[in-house]
Amino acid sequence: MQNTTPAYAGGTPVRTEKIYYAHQMIDQADIDAVAAVMRSDFLTAGPAIEETEKKLCELTGAKYAVLCANGTAALHIACLAAGIKEGDEVITTPITFAASANCALYCGATPVFADIDPETYQLDPVKVQEKITEKTKAIIPVDFGGQAADIDAFLKLAKEHGLLIIEDASHSIGTKYHGRAVGSLSDMTVFSFHPVKTICGGEGGAVLTDDEDLCKKLRLYRTHGITRDPAMMRHEPHGPWYYEQVALSTNYRITDMQAALIGSQLNKLPAFAARRKEICARYDEEFGKLPAFRVQKETEGSDTVRHLYILRIDPEHFTLSRRELYDALLAEGIVPNVHYLPVYRMPYYEDLGYKVGLCPEAERLYDEMLTLPLYAGMTDQDIEDVICAVTRIGEYYGR
Ligand SMILES: *Cc1c(COP(=O)(O)O)cnc(C)c1O
Question: Does residue 317 share a domain with residue 260?
């Protein structure tokens, strides 16, 4: 570390070229896979979709995978397949992307927020239990940051109360929990292939399940609620062209180009995962030494491929606010992010009647957290630059 005065205090910035919190990693094999589809007969609903669904099953051990337009669509069709409707309640975490709760609203149901564990930042099963009522139909745990939520505890609650577990695994493809792959743990598991996530499809999502009946419904809701399966029809099929709309949904299909890109990216998951683990190990090693900051504690049993690296201020040992830390990192050429404002603090949710103070641990975390750069394409120099910036700020403004 050359000069240890932070740029925020007048020192020389660690770097001039900015580094962001996430970036996709596309290679020639990915481009070739997409180009091959573009030269083929099927741009949507073609063979790449089934191939990539099969790959997701092989990778996770799930029986069925249903690719769809994006992770949000995946959450919506999972809720529809679960039969969630008006009058129902769905319990989730406030520390997530809004889609994890919006999916309940799309179905006319009510999202109920339970607080997080203050050290793992995951939805707390004890807090969830307190929120279960006669109306509760499902729990949507989120594998926040990439580490598995406390899935065994949620499965136990689900069994006792007759609920479904829809695991929002948008962050956690590649993660294992007590030796089993995320994707095989819950009644349904949702992945997102947005470019900031570990596997990139441009857009794209999937729902994985072992349940044949749920899989049929997921496929139905992916395409308008339309079926070509005579067993699901009301009238006699009039001919080979014949289909029926038997439920209401919309067009949540994915294109074959995106499916091919996801399939190609999945071939690199072991390499992406290894690199992410390497970066997190370096961060943990260095930031663990700084009293100014806390690092996210692992959930018991999680072998984590992290999507987000969360740095948390310890206000007793650090004199800057989160906002000032953000500006101090930006001054060094590091562009952090924040994941997330508790969902119920979004104005839309406030207008529905959710009140500040609902989940105090989540609110405290929001005030103290930043997301640091983490992606497989980071160079060793990028990693050392982040460490240098965080360390000099942590030491200079520590107490
Ligand atoms: C990204 C994300 C989603 C939504 O995925 P999209 O593919 O962007 O629709 C849902 N939940 C969580 C936790 C996410 O991070």
Answer: no
- Of 48, 61, 49, the C-alpha closest to 189 is 61
Q: What percent of the chain has pLDDT over 70?
A: 99
- Could you identify the atom of ligand 1 that is nearest to the CA of residue 339? 15
Ligand 1 binding pocket includes 71 (Cβ within 6 Å): yes
pTM over 0.70: yes
302 lines ligand 1 (CB under 6 A): no
Does 368 fall in a domain? Answer: yes
Domain boundary among 246, 266, 286: 266
Going by C-alpha positions, the residue among 76, 69, 78 that lies closest to residue 193 is 69
Judge if 56 and 193 occupy the same domain: yes
Residue with tokens 């590091």: 334
Residues 234 and 167 grouped into a single domain? yes
pLDDT tens per residue across span 193-252: 999 999 999 999 999 999 999 999 999 999 999 999 999 999 999 999 999 999 999 999
Specify burial of residue 37 (Cβ count, 10 A radius: 0-12, 13-18, 19+). buried
Q: What angle do CA 247, 253, 256 make, to 5 degrees?
A: 150
Domain holding 12, by residue range, is 7-23+269-396
Is a pLDDT exceeding 90 seen at residue 80? yes
Ligand 1 pocket, 258 CB below 6 A? no
Domain shared by 189 and 291, yes or no: no
Same domain, 252 and 337: no
> Domain check: are 250 and 389 in the same one?
no
Mapping DSSP to helix (H, G, I), strand (E, B) and coil, where does residue 6 land?
coil
Nearby residues of 284 by Cβ (< 8 Å), 6 or more positions away: 295
Which residue, among 228, 262, 247, 235, has the nearest Cα to 66 in the 3D structure? 262
